[in-house]
Amino acid sequence: MCAEQISIFIENKEGRLAEVTAILRDADVNIRALSLADTTDFGVLRLIVNNNDRAEKALKKEGFTVGITQVLAVEVKDEPGGLNDILDPLSENEVNVEYMYAFANPQCKNAIMIFRFDDHDKALKILAEKKIKVISKQEICNL
Amino acid sequence: MSIYNINFETMPREGIEAIQLKRLQATIERIYVTVPFYKKVFDTAGIKPADIKSLEDLQRLPFTTKLDLRDNYPYDMFAVPMENIVRIHASSGTTGKPTVVGYTKRDLDTWAELMARSFAAAGATSGDIIHNAFGYGLFTGGLGVHYGAEKLGASVIPVSGGNTKRQITIMQDFKPTILTGTPSYILHLAEVADEMGVDFKDLHFKSGIFGAEPWSENMRAELEEKLHLKAMDIYGLSEVIGPGVSIECYEEQKGLHVFEDHFIVEIIDPESGEVLPYGETGELVFTSITKEAFPIIRYRTKDITRLNPEPCTCGRTHIRMNKPSGRTDDMLIIRGVNVFPSQIESVLMETKQIHPHYQLVVDRINNLDTLTVKVEIDEALFSDEIKTLQTMEQKISNDIKEYLGVSAKVMFVEPKTITRSEGKAVRVIDNRKF
User: Fold this and answer.
1) Sequence spans of domains, chain A
2) Please, what is the angle between helix A52-61 and helix A16-26, to 10°?
3) Interface contact flag, B414 A63, Cβ < 8 Å
C-alpha cells in the first residue's frame, strides 16, 4: 500500500553525495526522487528508487547507515489548488507534515508528492475517506 | 622573596629525611588499625608496621591506585570517624563514581599552610590582593587556594570561574596583585580583556599561580607577555591533598618544590613499578605523612615527570619535580576538569543503551579548550528526520554536561569513519599544544 523511502546518513563533506549516487549507479538502481535535508555537520539523503532491496544492500555493503521509512506517495493534479485538495483534510484533522518532496509522474502531467506525516496511519485513513489515491510501492517501481 | 616556613622549607636533607621517617612510621601504624583496606594489602604483602625501619622500606609497600579508591567509595579509605571530618571534596573517577576525599580540621590547617607557602614562593605577602579564578566547589582548586591566601593574611577575592567580563572589571577596580586559575582560562581572560580594550599593563598583577592542567614553557611565555606578571606552576591532586603539593619558586621557575615534610615523592617505572633514581623520567608517586582523614600510601598519579634534588637558589631544600610532561593513562584535563573517555562511554550507553563507536577530539580555540564527541551513527541511532537526530545530539551533550561537568559538542559521523589503529578505535585526539 505505502511507498518505501530509503534514507542515508551522510557527513557534510565534498563529494559524498556523488559517492552515494555512484554506488546506486553501479548497483543499477534508478533514482525516482530525492531530497536532502542538511545541518552544518551532516545531512539525511532521502530517496525513492526503483529497487529498494538492491539499493539498501549496495549502500550497506559500502558501510552506510541506511534506514527504510514508510512514506505516502500521492498523485497531485497539475492545476491550481491541487496540493490543497490533499493538505486541507489532513490539517483539519491535525495531521502534521514532517517533510515532503515531489517528482513528476512520467506517465502523465501530474506530480507525485512524497509525504512523511507525524501520524502515518491517521493520514492514510483520511486520504482513503477522501478517496485520494495513494500510490503503492509496486506502482512506483514500475513507473 | 620570603619563605613562609623557613624551618621546614630550608631544612638540610638529613633533617627532612629524619622527619619523613618518623611521620611515615606513625602514618603506617595508624592506618594499619584504622583503614581495613591498608591492613589487608599490608598483610597480603607480608608487612607489619614495625617492618618500616628506614625510608627505603617504603618501597616494600604496595601502591594505591584510583581503582582502589573507587572500590572503597565513598568513605572506606577514611582513617578517622565521620565526626572528625569537616570537609569533603571529590574529583572525577574513571567511571560514573567520583573519587571522594575527606579532611579533618588539622588537615585543612595543613593544606592552608601548604598553600600559604606556595603563595610566598610565588612572591605573595600579606599585603597582596589575590584574584582567585579557580572554580569553587567539589573541585579542590577554589577552596584550597582560598584558605591558603587567608592563612597568609592576604586579601582574597573569591571570584571563581566564569563571568569573564565581570572578572576584568573587578581586576580594574579591586586592583588585585596576584592571579590564580587554570592557565587556559586565564589566557581566555586575557583575550576577553583585549576585546574590551583593557591592557594588563595597566592592571596591577605581579605574579600568577596557574595549575590544575598541564601547561608548557611556551604557554608560560605567552602568559607572562600578555598578562605582565611572572607565571608560576602549581601542582596538586585531591587524592594527595589538592593544590599545594608542589610549586615553582619566583626566583628560578625551574621545577616545582615538593613539600617534603608532608609528602614523600617517588618516581617509578610505570611498567615494572621499580623506583627510579633521581633524574630519570617515570610515573610520579606520592605518600602523605601528615594527613589524618585521608592518608594515602604510594599513590600512583599517572603523571609523568622526573625529580631534581639539587639545592635551589631560592633557599628551599625541598626536592623539585619537573612540570609533568604527560600521563600514563588516557585521562584528559579539559578546562581543569578531569575527563576519562570511559566516562563518556558510560553516558552514551545510558543514553541509548547501545555501545557506539566514539572519539573525543580536544582542541584549543581562542585559548579555550573545546571537546567534541564524535559518535558513529548506527541503525539504532539513525532517523530519517533531522530534528530527531539533532535532539539526540543535544540530549547526549546535556547528559555529558550533567554527569561530567564539561561542555561538549556531540557530532554524529558516518560509520567506520573514526580512526582505528590495529582494529581498536582511537578514543582521543588531543590537538592542543602544551
Assistant:
1) 3-69, 73-133
2) 120
3) yes
